[in-house]
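Each letter names a residue; structure tokens follow underneath. Both lines appear below:
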Amino acid sequence: MSQMRTTIVRLLSNMASAKEISLYLKRFARMDAARFAVVKVGGAVLRDDLDALVSSLAFLQQVGLTPIVLHGAGPQLDEHCAAAGIAKRALDGLRVTPPETLAVVRRVLLSENLRLVEALQAAGVRATSIQSGVFEVEVLDPDRYGLVGKVIAVHTPGIRAAIGVGSIPVIASLGETGGGQILNINADWAASELVKELQPYKIVFLTGTGGLLDGDGRLIDSINLGSQYEALMGAAWLHSGMRVKIEQIHDLLMQLPPSSSVSITRPDELAKELFTHRGSGTLVRRGERIEQHTGWNALDRTRIAALIESGFGRRLAADYFEATQPWRVFVSEHYRAALLLTREVFAGGELVPHLDKFAVAHDAQGEGLGRAAWQAMRASVPRLFWRSRPDNPVNEFYLEQADGCIKSERWNVYWYGLESLAAIGQAVDHCRARPASLKEHCHA
């Protein structure tokens, strides 16, 4: 038990506040156990990060959660096929699988499945090996791909039986035809079909890179398919492997509710991804379009007010809409995130953008929708200042986005793009003098 406590302390130290963790635990506790999370584990993770994976899964079980784990074994298959003198061939992102390759695929996948289950059990984690019976398949194109299957049905009784006794199902990405023929199936495709069937709250892909990388090798922290997909697919730096991955995720999310998302992260960041708003790695979400308006006329004020009051837990001043003249309003298509900007007069008549409200609905927190709305705003607003209460949990995010911050007992003042000390001073003076527009202890 002391080892388990050490694991939990180590994982918790990587997270944010206890309030965030409690929020997610309560949210997960209210749902069907089989809909908590599907975690797809790449073969490189099994090879290189098994200990970190086991520790993260042990933590989830310790707090009463049971993820469904599906794994591949790509690097291991490459190694064993090479040792057997079988050349690797791939078409359209799929491993061409003649009979001699299928024998290796089956042996290696079953071996890796048992290795993970045994490692979990050795750490005191209840885990169940599921090597067949989940993915019913038919041969995709025998002349082109060989013994590669296309999933036509997903059967979950074995998965639900394991979850029912608190055991983590560990599923090998092998398919079986109605006549009992074993076929190789792409692990990402298998994960997609499993997700469509179970509709889990969280979908996590664990990889060695910990996320998707841009053309300069930097981690992409979030992708909003609703507003970024076409531009992303047209990017010159997007290589074929990543293109296939993003297309698969896009096709998957288009069949799920708008709030759905896929997280790509490392095994040691799994708990952070599940239990904090900020998460880790790359968050790919179906997302919502972010619309831009220049006044109240085209907006539903009732929905804007409900969003702000829900997000802050305080009521707006009765005259807020009459007293506030927006310069720009950035709002998601379903009114689940919004940024309200005014322009304030500085010395010499200069008009400087000011963030008056930034609100995200409770059920959208953790999706990355707020960050997507912020990015849309930032792309068209080169300078900005705003204020926040010192105890606002969003302040960490604000610090990341700001060029600077001046703190006081009542307000923190943030800015980016202000080029002179005089402008910064005026921003601070304005924020300190501006009356509050939320009743009682507001956060904006």
Remarks:
- The chain has 17 helices and 21 strands.
- Residues 99-122 form the longest helix (24 residues).
- The radius of gyration is 25 Å.
- The mean pLDDT is 88.
